[in-house]
Design a protein that fits this description.
The complex is a heterodimer of chains A (550) and B (262). Chain A has 550 residues and is an all-alpha fold. Chain A has 19 helices and no strands. Chain B is built from nine helices and eleven strands. In chain B, the strands form two sheets. In chain B, strands 7-8-9-4-10-11 form a six-stranded mixed sheet, sandwiched between helices. The termini of chain B are far apart. Classes of the chains: A mainly alpha (550), B alpha/beta (262). At the A-B interface, helix 11, helix 14 and helix 19 of A face helix 2, helix 3 and helix 4 of B.
């Protein structure tokens, strides 16, 4: 008989898991890079805090105003807002949140009940839940200040609403986890998700065109929303305020039913996990084919101008790019974005009437946007190398070859993207004037090459491993994000200033001349930096290997 | 005088207050099948990482085939092959793509890289899954591929960190034969393994590291001769190992302290 107490309480186990997470965080801060990462997180946390606090005031004011002015039907909108944020925001940021694998707890003598409660309890620990709880409480305070008698009912409704949201959120995330357990499915769904998010941008022009005809249809649908939890919560509070206990009980019971249903469904998922469900990444074994050696000669070497090492890295990077659904998809975005923005802002589109923007403004703006999107991964360019990073240090090559290979593939992708976007731009908006075209092209070279130098330094100094085509548990290094942010603002700002000097001074070709000079300087600086970065990589190799081989 | 393949002098590596490798003087002659042993945390992996350029020494010098690693790292790296800890594979390539990548990184021309990668995939019995990504290989298959990549450029020194761990008996037999053949042709093999039987069967020379210090080095016969008494000639490598690293009596776990388990 093992010397184990019959069972620790679920509360004790939750406390232990909280302690474990705290220790993991504290121990991770022993490393300098993780400390820098924390600074990045604090920086982000500060702005998130301002966002949450600002909306706390808004929800307080909303709760107070709707109750004191008798606009009770509007309460449901507040609940709807919180509900949508609580459920949708985690999907948006799934790629950036740290991951804690609850199933690892199953090796301990944990009852199913405790496992379930721990799972739910940690549903309250992410940003969207904390923010939503803050807003709900602010709303409750606002309502209580307006009508103190409503407080007990409001607290009951809010507690139930929180429980409903946390169970639904856990259910969605466990479904997503199941769905994303295979790489291909993960990449496919990620692609569909991003495309659907992008296509939301089409809403504005579509609403402009079809809004008036769609509105009645939307209002016809509204009554059906009344039986959904946020509306029920709003109606329950409204019923108490109007002293209609029967209506309150009906709404409250319906809300309770939802909570029961959405508590039972995650219970089933958690039971499967508790029972040892294995969401394996490995493909099922297949019978080996009869094996003739496949001769896959790559044909003529199209990269013969490059050294064998640089050519090998370019080929490898290209293969990685085409196999990474997520990265592959970002290549589709720029032309789509041009289409979207041209529909929103361009002067040539019939839907925008007087809001037209000239091609001279649209072209540099779009190029800046493209660079902003496409350059971001360059700041942590070793993210997907994994243990392969060791090859760069055991093989007979200088690290400048690695950087060159990686930068070459990025520049090629950018060139194709810019050419595609330019064609799209010419079709949708028209080409800019020659001086603006030359100035913007030179500015693009200046900002891309300038950023590449900084991004290479950032990649070596603040590496962070990321998994291919995976959403959960993927977070960039905080410092890399800050560096990217700062350099984009700096170089973008310089470029914008120079572009405007043309109109300020009246010399339209002045920006082009300045940018050509800056682009040449940036290219020179880039090549001069490669040796220094090679030395830096040699000094930082242990950090790189340690960060990427985890 | 036989050529010296690996020579270190006062090789030291510190991590903060911890001295993981403490003034090691190692000498391995060309063509030797050299086993590098030590208990967990003794400094084996740190040493092999320093010898292959994955880790910088705090002090000391390394010469491989007479070339100083610090002053001429590229020349040294051209002569060595490595199966590092964790294998160092790019797991989103196929086996064939990875071998071609490594071949080109070592400067082989395309035709040679192509031919050798096909031969190696065939030898390692990996040729029947040409489109499978390395991420979907089993651990044993990944290990075989890492070995193939380590030898594709015909290295003169081969560093292997636990090469047989997770490899099936059939493949292990073929690999041992390949490695033995390579040493016959003059390649030096520097291997770490926890399986002492394998080291005893394959290696002609052995070094034992303990708490960062080199505590024994020589041929198996020399080490046996170092064990006192007549029993020395019949001693297995395991007994030699235990007698060296556990000789102060503090290394063996004291079962009496775990009385609650018995």
């Amino acid at each position: 008989m093992a010397d184990v107490m019959r069972s620790g309480s679920a509360f004790e186990q939750i406390r232990l898991v909280a302690g474990l997470r705290w220790r993991i965080l504290r121990n991770s801060l022993r490393r300098k890079n993780n400390r820098l990462d924390l600074i990045g997180l604090i920086f982000t946390g500060f702005f998130s805090g301002i966002f949450v606090l600002g909306l706390c005031f808004a929800f307080y004011a909303g709760g107070y105003a709707f109750l004191s002015r008798g606009r009770l039907e509007w309460l449901a909108f507040l609940f709807w807002g919180i509900f949508l944020f609580w459920q949708i925001f985690p999907i948006f940021v799934a790629g950036f949140g740290a991951n804690f694998e609850f199933r690892t707890l199953l090796r301990f003598p944990l009852s199913l009940g405790a496992f379930y409660i721990i799972g739910l309890a940690y549903g309250f620990a992410d940003f969207s839940s904390l923010a939503s709880v803050c807003w709900l409480l602010s709303m409750t305070v606002g309502a209580a200040v307006a009508k103190p008698g409503v407080l007990p009912a409001m607290l009951l409704v809010v507690a139930l609403f929180m429980l409903f949201n946390v169970t639904l959120e856990r259910l969605i995330s466990s479904w997503l986890e199941r769905l994303f357990s295979r790489r291909r499915t993960r990449e496919l769904f990620l692609g569909i998700f991003i495309l659907s998010m992008v296509s939301l941008n089409f809403l504005a022009p579509l609403m402009q065109r079809y809004g008036t005809t769609a509105r009645p249809a939307f209002f016809r649908l509204l009554p059906y929303f009344a039986w959904l939890p946020p509306s029920l919560a709003g109606r329950a509070v409204a019923a108490v305020t109007q002293l209609h206990p029967g209506a309150f009980l009906i709404s409250f019971a319906a809300l309770l039913l939802y909570v029961a249903l959405f508590s039972a469904l995650p219970w089933r998922r958690f039971s499967s996990q508790y029972g040892g469900e294995e969401l394996s990444e490995t493909a099922a074994p297949v019978r080996a084919a009869v094996r003739p050696i496949t001769t896959t000669d790559d044909g003529l070497d199209r990269l013969s101008l490059l050294s064998p090492q640089v050519a090998a890295i370019v080929r490898k990077e290209f293969r990685y790019l085409t196999r990474n659904g997520f990265a592959y998809l970002t290549l589709l975005l720029p032309p789509i974005l041009i289409l979207i923005f041209s529909m929103n802002f361009s002067g040539s589109h019939p839907t925008v009437g007087g809001k037209g923007v000239s091609a001279d403004l649209f072209f540099p703006g779009m190029m800046a946007y493209l660079i902003l999107i496409l350059m971001a991964p360059a700041y942590n360019s070793f993210a997907y190398e994994g243990r392969g990073i060791q090859v760069y240090f055991t093989a007979p090559l200088r690290f400048r070859d690695v950087l060159l290979g990686k930068n070459l593939i990025l520049v090629s992708v950018l060139s194709v993207e810019i050419a595609l976007s330019l064609a799209m731009l010419a079709w949708r908006v028209g080409l800019p004037s020659p001086h603006m075209l030359v100035a913007t092209c030179a500015a693009v070279i200046f900002t891309i090459v300038g950023q590449l130098t900084i991004a290479n330094w950032s990649s070596i100094s603040f590496p962070r491993k990321m998994e291919f085509g995976q959403m959960r548990g993927q977070r960039q290094s905080g410092m890399a994000v800050l560096v990217a942010f700062a350099s984009q603002i700096l170089l973008g700002g310089i470029s914008a200033l120079i572009l405007f000097t043309g109109s300020w001074t009246g010399d339209l070709w002045l920006p082009a001349e300045v940018f050509v000079f800056l682009a040449a300087a940036a290219v020179g600086g880039y090549f001069a930096s490669l040796d220094a970065l090679t030395n830096l990589a040699e000094r930082k190799k242990e950090l790189l290997i340690e960060a990427l081989c985890r | 005088m036989p050529e010296v393949a690996i020579q270190t002098q006062s090789l030291t590596r510190r991590f903060g207050n911890l001295t993981a490798v403490d003034g090691i003087d190692l000498q391995v002659t060309a063509g030797q099948f050299f086993g590098f042993l030590g208990p967990n945390g003794a400094g084996k992996s740190t040493t092999i990482k320093i010898l292959t350029g994955l880790l910088a020494p705090t002090s000391g010098t390394i010469q491989l085939l007479g070339v100083d690693f610090a002053t001429n790292p590229l020349e040294v790296k051209r002569q060595i092959g490595v199966v590092p800890e964790g294998l160092g594979l790019f797991d989103r390539l196929t086996g064939s793509e990875y071998l071609k990548f490594v071949g080109r990184m070592y400067g082989l021309d395309r035709a040679t890289t192509q031919r050798r990668s096909e031969e190696l995939l065939d030898f390692m019995q990996l040729a029947d899954r040409p489109k499978t990504l390395i991420a979907d290989y089993s651990h044993g298959m990944q290990k075989k591929l890492a070995l193939a990549a380590a030898v594709i450029h015909g290295p003169r020194i081969l560093f292997l960190d636990e090469p047989f761990e997770g490899v099936d008996a059939l493949a292990a037999g073929a690999l041992k034969a390949l490695l033995a053949r390579m040493t016959e042709r003059g390649t030096t093999i520097f291997l770490t393994s926890h399986v002492l039987e394998i080291v005893e069967r394959l290696c002609s020379h052995v070094a034992i590291i303990h708490k960062g210090r080199l505590v024994a080095q020589g041929s198996l016969e020399e080490l046996r001769a170092g064990i006192a008494g007549e029993a020395g000639s019949k001693t297995t490598l395991e007994q030699i190992f235990l007698s060296i690293v556990g000789q102060d009596g503090t290394e063996r776990p004291q079962l009496e302290e775990l009385s609650w388990l018995m």
